[in-house]
């Protein structure tokens, strides 16, 4: 009987191996947002916000419930995504660092195989390098467009948001608590273009440029990265979107006493009315973003490209939006790290995946879909098996780092571990005013405390769990960080982790450092 079972199992294995792999797709459309939190998407459970086009994509594709950014800051996350590597291996762990030319990107890999590549919108390369993209459009092109074809002007009684000056003006102003229309980030070259109708606004310009590229090259294979600035503060929105929500209908989250320790000084004087106004502005910007996602999805249908194109929607990271009393993202809490991730593969059935995935998994997935060889040295793992309906585990943990504040995070299905040196007060204008917190660890039981209100690292009952997660975090660095081989012998776990959470830019031997 045992021999028969073995033969049956072997036959099944051989049959599965003999099944032909899915034919590669011709195209990939990668749509990314800036600061779009999972809790601000209808298909992820928000009953107030209106995101019909993203929700349509979710209904037609695979919605990943547990997708996480590898860093809660724009530049760092984006360069990690585009290379399929953890940030410390890209040479980019700080906001202003440019990605080095020698770092191989998904566009480099696709372009070598004759695929036309386009990057439209915010890429945060911090240099003039194109990193494999044939075609490049950004905010400066929008300025030129409006200089050549002036925008339709709203009536004189319409108020617009002032110039975006974070940390130099009150938080309620640069967070747009009055839900004023306009493009504040990036700042328009001509102040007269601060407030515009939908037809002339920045996100709409990007959507139309993407549609033009898809139309012009529809006979070729394409990789198009469409990257919107929305809903990054001060929450860009056209005139038509400024009255879509009321303060009363938008929710404010519950907070905890532990949050008080970490609240930046700049947020402490925000009133409830201010906070609701900020949430309203964020929701309005998300709805505008969704409107442009719909424009591009409809164009795919009209051009006959939907059945040959992998479509990905995600964000570089999330946004706290008053969770833990903060209006930013530079923390390791779920609302800042968890991101919407939807992948529509026309070869696959729609579904929902509960698997733990990281944003570095996207480049391997895209290359798989295109039938292009993988980039050597990536840390990401293709989502192909999950898209095909496999229900087993993809990862048993996800990892993130934020070197501006010298911290790292490791999350499993049940636990979240955070290590921080606490050697300085929080950076980039978000200081608490309480001084450095000192070296510390945080541990959250996500099953019992999904809102992360109680740090249980000091509980003796969790000593073994804490030690295990600390060791696993250290192992990620030791296996993937170019600096690992150069650390002196004899350092303790805390000392090694403290070295690893320093910005790689301080190490001249790291590419791009």
Description:
It contains 14 helices and 12 strands. With 513 residues, the chain is α/β, with parallel strands linked by helices. The strands form 2 sheets. It has an 8-stranded mixed beta sheet, sandwiched between helices. It has a 4-stranded antiparallel beta sheet with strand order 9-10-11-12, covered by helices on one side. The N terminus is likely disordered.
Major sheet summary line: 8 strands, mixed
Number of DSSP helical runs? 14
Count structural domains: 2
Report the strand count: 12
Taking pLDDT < 50 over at least 5 consecutive residues as the criterion, the unreliable ranges are: 1-20
Shape verdict: globular
User: Helix-strand pattern, N to C?
Assistant: HEHEHHHEEHHHEHEHEEHHEEEEHH
**Order of strands side by side in the largest beta sheet?**
4-3-5-1-6-7-2-8
- Alpha-beta content class: alpha/beta
Assign the CATH architecture of the largest domain: 3-Layer(aba) Sandwich
The average pLDDT is: 94
CATH topology assignment of the largest domain = Alkaline Phosphatase, subunit A
Give the class-level CATH name of the largest domain.
Alpha Beta
SSE inventory with pairings:
Elements: H1 2-18, E1 27-33, H2 52-60, E2 62-68, H3 74-83, H4 87-90, H5 106-112, E3 116-121, E4 135-137, H6 139-148, H7 171-174, H8 202-216, E5 222-227, H9 272-302, E6 309-315, H10 334-337, E7 338-344, E8 351-358, H11 362-370, H12 384-387, E9 398-402, E10 407-411, E11 415-420, E12 440-445, H13 463-480, H14 493-500
Helix pairs in contact: 8-9, 13-14
Please supply descriptive tags for the structure shown above:
single chain, 513 residues, alpha/beta, Alkaline Phosphatase, subunit A, Arylsulfatase, C-terminal domain, 2 domains, 12 strands, 14% strand, disordered N terminus
């Amino acid at each position: 009987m045992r021999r028969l079972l073995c033969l049956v199992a072997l036959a099944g294995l051989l049959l599965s191996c003999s099944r032909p792999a899915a034919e590669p797709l011709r195209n990939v459309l990668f749509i990314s947002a800036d600061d779009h939190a999972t809790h601000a998407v209808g298909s992820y459970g928000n009953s107030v916000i209106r995101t019909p086009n993203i929700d349509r994509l979710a209904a037609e594709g695979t919605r990943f419930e547990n997708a996480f950014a590898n860093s809660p800051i724009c530049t760092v996350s984006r360069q990690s995504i585009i290379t399929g590597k953890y940030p410390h291996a890209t040479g980019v762990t700080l906001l202003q660092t440019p990605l080095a030319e020698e770092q191989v990107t998904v566009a480099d890999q696709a372009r070598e195989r004759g695929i036309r590549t386009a990057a439209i919108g915010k890429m945060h390369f911090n240099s003039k390098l194109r990193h494999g993209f044939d075609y490049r459009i950004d905010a400066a092109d929008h300025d030129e467009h409006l200089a050549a074809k002036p925008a339709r002007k709203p009536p004189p009684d319409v108020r617009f948001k002032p110039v975006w000056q974070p940390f130099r003006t009150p938080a309620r102003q640069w967070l747009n608590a009055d839900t004023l229309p306009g493009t504040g980030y990036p700042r328009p070259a001509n102040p007269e273009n601060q407030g515009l109708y939908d037809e002339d606004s920045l996100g709409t310009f990007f959507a139309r440029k993407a549609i033009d590229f898809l139309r012009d090259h529809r006979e070729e294979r394409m990789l198009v990265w469409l990257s919107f600035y929305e809903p990054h503060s001060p929450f860009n929105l056209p005139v038509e979107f400024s009255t879509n929500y009321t303060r009363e209908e938008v929710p404010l989250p519950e907070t905890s006493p532990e949050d008080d320790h970490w609240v930046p000084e700049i947020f402490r004087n925000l009133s409830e009315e201010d906070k609701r106004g900020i949430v309203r502005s964020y929701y309005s910007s998300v709805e505008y973003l969704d409107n442009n996602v719909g424009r591009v999805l409809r164009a795919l249908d009209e051009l006959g490209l939907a059945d040959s194109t992998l479509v990905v929607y995600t964000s570089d990271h999330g946004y706290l939006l008053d969770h833990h009393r903060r209006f930013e993202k530079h923390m390791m809490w779920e609302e800042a790290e968890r991101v919407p991730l939807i992948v529509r593969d026309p070869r696959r059935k729609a579904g929902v995946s509960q698997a733990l995935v990281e944003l570095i998994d996207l480049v391997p997935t895209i290359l798989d879909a295109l039938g292009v060889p993988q980039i050597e040295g990536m840390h990401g793992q293709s989502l192909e098996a999950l898209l095909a309906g496999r229900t087993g585990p993809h990862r048993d943990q996800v990892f993130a780092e934020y070197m501006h504040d010298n911290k790292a995070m490791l999350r499993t299905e049940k636990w979240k571990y955070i290590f921080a040196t606490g050697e300085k007060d929080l950076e980039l204008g978000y200081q608490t005013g309480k001084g450095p917190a000192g070296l510390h660890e945080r541990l959250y039981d996500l099953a019992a405390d999904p809102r992360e209100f109680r740090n249980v690292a000091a509980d003796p009952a969790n000593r073994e769990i804490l030690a295990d997660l600390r060791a696993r975090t250290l192992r990620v660095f030791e296996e993937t960080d170019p600096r690992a081989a150069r650390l002196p012998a004899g350092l303790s776990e805390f000392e090694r982790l403290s070295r690893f959470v320093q910005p790689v830019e301080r190490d001249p031997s790291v590419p791009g450092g």
